[in-house]
Amino acid sequence: MSSPSVNRPAPSAVTHLSALLATSFHEDALTRWMIPDERLRAELLPGFFRVFVELSAAHDGVLTTPDGDAVLLFLPPGAEPDEAALDAAFAAALGEHADAMRAIAALQEERHPHGPPHYYVSFGAVRPGRQQGGLISGLLGRLLARADAEGVGLYTEASSPGGEAASRRAGFERLGGDIALPDGGPVLRPMWREPR
After folding, report:
1. What percent of the chain has pLDDT over 70?
2. Is 127 helix (H, G, I), strand (E, B) or coil?
3. In this predicted model, which residue has the larger pLDDT, 7 or 83?
4. Which is nearest to 32 in space by CA: 148, 181, 193?
5. Sign of the four-CA dihedral 122, 163, 42, 106
6. pTM of the predicted structure, to 2 decimals
7. CA-CA distance, 154 to 124, in Å (whole number)?
8. How do 153-158 and 173-174 pair as beta strands?
9. Which of 161, 156, 146, 159 is nearest to 195 (CA)?
10. How far is residue 149's CA from residue 42's CA, in Å, rounded to a whole number?
11. Residue with more model confidence, 10 or 49
12. What's the confidence (pLDDT) of residue 7?
């Protein structure tokens, strides 16, 4: 297996990675809650994920396999995104569904740890047909090694059993109770990993 690389993706790669994330998360409970209509979800998710890819790329927080079949997005310790610019980008990408994203973000912010420095892992995805091959574990392992070398923790919120299982294999543990979305929506599971 080729080793992962960290770089600022070219515009064509941003488009590719946004589409990969959109495909991978099309049936995720979180995106289904945010955009219930299946056709509209398929239309809007690439733009939604483009915001995250560009945000992570601006902080050198994109890990990919050389073939682009897997991606891991994160923010490093001390990253301070421009909240107003992010909100405008989500509004442009999601239209009337931006309020659902704002509700998710507000709940996430309430629970996000603000104590010790840490990496924040936001999304990981693998191209359909390539799952279960260790691609995400390889990317995550690269980030874990960096965090351990720096002596800082990692934080994430799992939105699916698969995401939680991958996080647990990497040494993450639950951090408090779940984040429950309104109106009977799905839950996000906050998880933390201490440096080793």
Report:
1. 94
2. coil
3. 83
4. 181
5. negative
6. 0.91
7. 14
8. unpaired
9. 146
10. 39
11. 49
12. 52
Burial class (CB in 10 A: 0-12, 13-18, 19+), 124: buried
Note the pLDDT tens digit of each residue in 126-141. 988 767 667 888 999 9
Residue 145's CB is within 10 A of a number of other CB atoms, namely: 11
Report the amino acid identity of residue 158: A
Main-chain phi, psi angles of 64, to 5 degrees: -135, 155
User: How far apart are the C-alpha atoms of 173 and 168, rounded to whole Å?
Assistant: 6
Cα dihedral: 119, 139, 28, 128 (round 10): 170
Query: Could you tell me the pLDDT band of residue 114, with boundaries at 50, 70 and 90?
Result: confident
Residue 82, C-beta contacts closer than 8 angstroms, at least 6 positions apart: none
- Per-residue tokens: 194: 């201490």
Q: Are 35 and 41 in contact (CB under 8 A)?
A: yes
Mean pLDDT of the chain: 91
Question: Tokens representing 60?
Answer: 């050198």
Helix (H, G, I), strand (E, B) or coil at 130: coil
Residue 168: both structure tokens together:
């647990």
